[in-house]
């Protein structure tokens, strides 16, 4: 009898469910989620403004600014790769430049360090703008 309120029984065997990841893989995913920080466009623009301003940042702040700009580059490159932005020629060139700058150490000497910070700042700014233009970022901050 099939009608409202009656149960239908299946007689075919069902395969036992197996999880898609083992415990080690789940631990890796959990560690990555715990270490993840959201994209902060305002902080990115603040850091870019600090290094591209007419008045260079204080010498004591250069190493910290360089590290934050490298983090912005890493996040933007990850967004570009995930969004397949490298199909866009301009974005692909900016990603290559970002990767090269990311590996360059902060040079010794005040003028060289400021020049490096400004290259980082321009690249962060241009890649951010390009990703917004090709809609890999929902909006520019």
UniProtKB/TrEMBL annotation:
InterPro entries membership: DUF6415 (IPR046300)
A Pfam family assignment: DUF6415
Name recorded for this polypeptide: Uncharacterized protein
The species this protein was found in: Streptomyces gancidicus BKS 13-15
